Every structure is written in structure tokens, then in C-alpha cells.
């Protein structure tokens, strides 16, 4: 018999917030809670049984019906190139998982391999087909669920994210700078789907990350300059075959929204070859396109080694901190045969992004921190980590 693990008050704050304000669990819903077995034993889909049991109990307490599914994810190579899989040859969502998704009203997902932003295109397409909202719970272990990162009110991050998105205005000029010599600039193009406005709430969407932490990506037009970076977000670092923290900075020269030159050490050489292979798969225009300056909005998105022993996962969490900004290399959206969501995020810590002369972030300082609408949400939660993230870090 398994004993229900006792839930400490820190975890209760986070679990309740996630279920009520991110998942928005309703009575009588069938809720699929998914986790992968490798994550219990040092694999990349990091998870523990305690968090799964807390969430299961929380779903049940709301009058809904939780079903927990522990699955094997396909064993496969990390590095995706030089030959890229196609839609026909790529690994698939396991069929039992897909059938469980079909029968669910809500999906709470703890499997990193099934993230809609970085992995298979099949996943977001399936969510849409099944009209299935997915919570991507990234606080997948008990220490992470107790962290200030998970205890920061979900509504506060949503407000910060939305108000930051409001600062991204189609037609204005943007400028990204860093003391390391980075200087990129261009115009803000239209938002995804050709929309004029960028901000949107996630509440009714199929994709609901918990904790949330990134604002909508700027669609750059006529981007020019240099981008010097020494980090890559871990999922695509693994797929390309470079470490998330580089041994030497890489300097990208960008002309008219395209990568014109890649200079640096060992990682630059790998990136050059990767982009060449990508050009073979999706064409030069898509492979060398640079897109999406955007970054983190979560003031407490830094965790200690005691809270998360895996250094790559700590890097992943840190990419949601306001000190982190990233660009994406490559655009595969126009190539229907390419099976992955290309999310090659090259990352800078401590940069400044301005749009239309207004500061979105400045080395971790958020432009919306003084917005009275953001302050009003923060004031509702005086006992929780909020805009004062620096006072709660690593707790
Ligand atoms: Fe991104």
C-alpha cells in the first residue's frame, strides 16, 4: 500500500494555485496526469511520485476524476542532425498516451519530451484536434513545487506577462543591447497569425505552462547587428549537441533578419554545421532566419542545487528569470514536413531590450514592475513571493 505523502504548506500554496488558476479544474472533469518513468531515475523527464500524488489528491478534492498514467517515452538519440527525421520517420506520441488524451477533458503533463514549444509538432496539433487544454507543469518534484518559483502567484505572472506583451507594438523599433558588445535592432512585425496586437491571456488556451514565465515573442523585421551569447536553452542545446553553457562566446552577425556569419570557438563550429544541415532540410531562408527576441518575466525563477540537482534543468528554469533574453535561430513553420517545433533559443543574461524607446527589461529589471495594474495583483498576495523575487531566491 502506498501512503499519501503529507503536503507541506508551501507545496499546498503552489498546488492549489496551479489547479485553480492555471489548470482551472472543474467538477466532474476527467483529468489525465502524465509522467514518464525515466524521470524517476535520472532521465530527462524529471519527476517524483510525491508531486504526482499531491496533484492527484488536489484534483479529486475539486470533485474531478484524476487518472495517473506512468509511461515509457521512446528511447532515441539526443542529437537530431545531420539527418533530420521527417514526419514519417520521427518518434511519435506513444499511442496509449494519445488515446488517454483523447478521452480527457484536461491534461496535466510532467513529460519534458512532450513540451509543445520545444519538441514534436504532433503535440500542439493533437491538443488542437482534441480541443484539450494542457497544463505543462514544470515544478515536477516536491522541492520544486515548494520553491518560491512555484509559489509566486500564477495570476501575478500572468499579469506581468500580459502587460509586458502590451509594450510590444507592431511598427515600432526595437533594440537589444548588452555590455558584451551585442547590438541588434529592427522593427516589430505583426504578431503570430498576422495579428496587430501581441498580448493574450493563456486562461482559455490549449497551452498553460506552470509556472508561466515568458512573454510573447517579438516578430522582428529587418533585424541587423551582432548578437554575442554563451548560453543555449537546454532542450535544443541537447538536440544540437552543445552544452547549455558554452566554453566560448559565439558572435552572430545578422543582416536583414538572416544569420550572415557565426564566429567563435567549438560551439560556433557546431552551430555553423547545424545551420548548414538545417538548410538542407528546410531550405536556406528558413534555416538562417533569426526571430523572436523575448525573455523571462518570473522574478523568482532561480533555484538552488539542493532544490534541483540537475544543472540543465536549473538552466531551463533560469531562462524564465527577467535577466534572461533569447533569440530563436531558424524558422521551420513553412516546411510542413519538418516534424519539430524549431526552438533553438540562444540566450543572453543581463541584456536590455527597448521597444519604441520604452524599456521591457534592463538586466533583470522589468519595465512593467511599476505598472499599477501589476502592483494591484501583487498587493493581493502579501505573504507570497512576488515582484520582490530577489528576497525569495533559492527558497
Ligand atoms: Fe522562445
Quick overview of this protein structure:
With 395 residues, the protein is of the alpha+beta class.
Characterise the protein shown here:
The structure is a single chain. The chain has 395 residues and is α+β, with helices and mostly antiparallel strands. It folds into two domains: 9-145, Rossmann fold (3-Layer(aba) Sandwich); 152-199 and 213-391, no CATH class. Helices cover 28% and strands 24% of the residues. It contains twelve helices and 16 strands. Strands 5, 6, 8, 9, 10, 11, 12, 13, 14, 15 and 16 form an eleven-stranded antiparallel sheet that branches. A hairpin with a 2-residue loop joins strand 9 and strand 10 (258-263). The two termini are 33 Å apart. The structure holds fe (ii) ion. Fe (ii) ion (FE2) is lined by residues 217, 292, 294, 326, 328, 343, 345.
Averaged pLDDT: 95
User: Which sheet architecture does the biggest sheet show?
Assistant: 11 strands, antiparallel
Distance between the termini: 33 Å
Named once each, the bound ligands are: fe (ii) ion
- From the alpha-carbon coordinates, what is the Rg to the nearest angstrom? 20 Å
Unreliable spans: none
Strand content: 15-25%
Shape verdict = globular
Number of helices: 12
Helix-strand pattern, N to C? HEHEHEHEHHHEEEEHEEHHEHEEEEEH
**What is the strand tally?**
16
Derived from helix and strand composition plus strand pairing, the structural class reads alpha+beta
Helical proportion?
A: 25-40%
Amino acid at each position: 500500500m502506498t501512503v499519501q505523502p503529507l503536503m507541506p504548506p508551501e507545496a499546498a500554496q503552489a498546488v492549489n494555485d496551479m489547479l485553480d488558476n492555471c489548470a482551472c479544474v472543474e467538477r466532474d472533469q476527467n483529468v489525465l496526469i502524465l509522467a514518464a518513468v525515466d524521470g524517476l531515475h535520472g532521465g530527462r523527464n524529471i519527476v517524483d511520485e510525491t508531486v504526482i500524488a499531491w496533484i492527484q489528491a488536489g484534483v479529486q478534492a475539486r470533485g474531478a476524476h484524476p487518472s495517473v498514467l506512468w509511461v515509457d517515452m521512446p528511447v532515441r538519440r539526443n542529437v537530431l542532425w545531420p539527418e533530420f527525421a521527417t514526419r514519417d520517420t520521427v518518434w511519435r506520441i506513444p499511442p496509449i498516451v494519445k488515446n488517454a488524451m483523447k478521452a480527457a477533458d484536461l491534461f496535466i503533463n510532467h513529460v519534458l519530451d512532450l513540451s509543445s514549444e520545444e519538441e514534436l509538432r504532433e503535440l500542439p496539433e493533437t491538443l488542437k484536434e482534441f480541443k484539450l487544454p494542457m497544463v505543462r507543469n514544470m515544478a515536477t518534484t516536491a522541492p520544486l513545487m515548494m520553491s518560491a518559483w512555484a509559489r509566486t502567484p500564477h495570476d501575478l505572472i500572468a499579469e506581468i506577462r500580459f502587460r509586458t506583451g502590451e509594450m510590444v507594438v507592431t511598427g515600432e523599433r526595437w533594440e537589444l543591447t548588452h555590455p558584451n558588445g551585442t547590438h541588434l535592432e529592427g522593427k516589430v512585425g505583426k504578431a503570430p497569425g498576422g495579428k496587430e496586437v501581441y498580448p493574450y491571456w493563456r486562461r482559455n488556451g490549449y497551452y498553460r505552462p506552470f509556472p508561466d514565465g515568458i512573454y510573447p515573442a517579438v516578430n522582428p523585421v529587418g533585424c541587423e547587428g551582432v548578437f554575442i551569447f554563451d548560453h543555449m536553452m537546454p532542450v535544443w542545446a541537447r538536440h544540437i549537441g552543445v552544452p547549455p553553457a558554452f566554453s566560448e562566446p559565439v558572435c552572430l552577425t545578422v543582416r536583414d533578419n538572416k544569420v550572415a556569419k557565426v564566429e567563435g570557438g567549438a560551439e560556433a563550429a557546431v552551430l555553423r554545421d547545424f545551420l548548414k544541415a538545417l538548410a538542407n532540410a528546410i531550405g536556406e531562408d528558413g534555416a538562417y532566419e533569426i526571430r523572436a527576441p523575448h525573455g523571462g518575466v518570473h522574478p523568482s525563477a532561480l533555484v538552488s542545487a539542493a532544490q534541483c540537482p540537475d544543472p540543465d534543468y536549473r538552466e531551463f528554469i533560469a531562462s524564465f528569470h527577467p535577466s534572461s533574453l533569447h533569440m530563436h535561430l531558424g524558422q521551420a513553420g513553412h516546411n510542413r514536413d519538418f516534424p519539430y517545433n524549431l526552438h533553438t533559443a540562444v540566450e543572453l543574461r543581463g541584456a536590455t531590450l527597448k521597444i519604441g524607446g520604452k524599456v521591457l527589461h534592463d538586466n533583470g529589471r522589468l519595465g512593467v514592475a511599476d505598472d499599477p495594474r501589476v502592483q494591484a495583483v501583487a498587493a493581493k498576495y502579501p505573504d507570497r513571493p512576488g515582484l520582490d523575487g530577489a528576497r525569495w531566491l533559492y527558497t
